[in-house]
Amino acid sequence: MKRCYVVGVEIKGSSDQEIIQECVALCQACEYEVVKTFIQKLKSRDPKMVYRSGKIQELKEWLIADEVETVVFYHEISVSASRRLSEELGVEVLDRTAVILDIFSQRARSKQSKIQTELARLSYALPKELASLEQESDHQRGGGTITRGSGEQRSEQIVRKYARRKHVLQEELKLVEKQRQQDEKRRAKTLYPRVGLVGYTNAGKSSLLNAILAYTRQNGQPVMVRDRVFETLDTAVRLVEYKGFAFYLYDTVGFVSNLPKTLIDAFFSTLESAKQADVLIHVVDGSDPLSFEKQEATKSVLVKIGAHPKQSLLVHTKKDLVSSFEDGLWVSSYTQEGIGELLDQLIGLLFPKEVQFTCLLPYDKMALFDRLSSLAHLQIVGQEETGLILKVAGDVDHLRPLKPYEIIRKDI
């Protein structure tokens, strides 16, 4: 296991403890042993070196003493600053985006998530490779071994190489997306609404989906659950039926604060399921002391992808691990406590004007069946001499023409 420091500059008057702790967790998820954090408070960050020269020397001595070979900045730093620090310290210098990309590479299972992760890596790596080439060219020009023209030619070659690879990946992604869109069109024909589970990474979204499936006794396959960040990179979709109502439940990729733009761009189609949902279930880890901050970070990402404001339910998970509760909806995916209340509230949001009843539709009124079948759920459950017995569910206004034929039959 590699040993690392989590480092950075905290601007005086602000507190970065939340994002520092998050970066430590990200490093641990990437199988780094975080030896210590090394934070300096300054009025501003030096764009060239980040740290002052005296602090760089102090950090170098600590790194040697602890036999640490990697430092990870909890905030973004420029390509040039990263290279200069690496030379000064004699160790690998990363930022949190690089760590997140490594985690995504380890977690990606499907073809779609692998393509999206590689696209994000290419967008992240190109400026670094160009900066490396520029610095190399500067050194060689100083020694009289290279001209500006040849350096520019090499940079153009690198840009073209990246562009070709991105084009290939984007074409492959289009094929995967085509299948996903066909699946979505098929689901849309059912008229069932869509519910998106959103929240901070490792907040318990997948566990909640599995708990809902178990509570409603669905046949849908449970999703994989592990107690680690970014376990879910692919959108999982399950059909849920509850008290005569049905909806599609989408489990989405988890968020972090300041989610890198390269990841938002690469995973846009995956994040789009949150944007297209009729209702969002905002999942918050109720046992996390930083739950409020992570709740706000999730809202920030939802705004970036155009999924906020949207009708939503705020749900605190892991009730079984908490002794005192704030106001709001609390559930335990482990004991299933609160799942019924969650589903009842969700149905109220999804179907505010929904009605269900059984009717006997005369054969000479079949035109109503044809007209309303695209607006509501009409299920043929029997047949009599005078007409068809239907179980219907839908908007009260849409189903008003069928109300005169409503029947109450104990044997239906």
Number of helices: 13
Largest sheet: 6 strands, mixed
**What are the segments in which pLDDT stays under 50 over at least 5 consecutive residues?**
none
Proportion of strand residues? 15-25%
Q: How confident is the prediction overall: mean pLDDT?
A: 85
Task: Report the CATH architecture of the largest domain.
Answer: 3-Layer(aba) Sandwich
* Domain module tally: 4
In angstroms, what separates the terminal alpha carbons? Answer: 64 Å
CATH topology annotation of the largest domain? Rossmann fold
Which range best describes the helical content: under 10%, 10-25%, 25-40%, 40-55%, 55-70% or over 70%?
40-55%
Shape: elongated
How would you portray this structure in words?
One of its GO terms (cellular component) is cytoplasm. GO terms for molecular function: GTP binding; metal ion binding; ribosome binding. Residues 159-186 form a coiled coil. Keywords: Coiled coil, GTP-binding, Magnesium, Metal-binding, Nucleotide-binding. 45% of the residues lie in helices and 22% in strands. The protein is an alpha/beta fold and 412 residues long. It has four domains: 2-104, Rossmann fold, CATH 3.40.50.11060; 108-137 and 154-187; 194-351, P-loop containing nucleotide triphosphate hydrolases (Rossmann fold); 354-405, no CATH class. A six-stranded mixed β-sheet has the order 6-7-5-8-9-10, with helices on both faces. Strands 2-1-3-4 form a four-stranded parallel β-sheet, with helices on both faces. It has a four-stranded antiparallel β-sheet with strand order 12-13-11-14. Helix 1 (17-29) packs parallel to helix 4 (96-107) and helix 4 (96-107) packs antiparallel against helix 5 (111-142). The protein starts with a strand and ends in a 5-residue tail after the last strand. The mean pLDDT is 85.
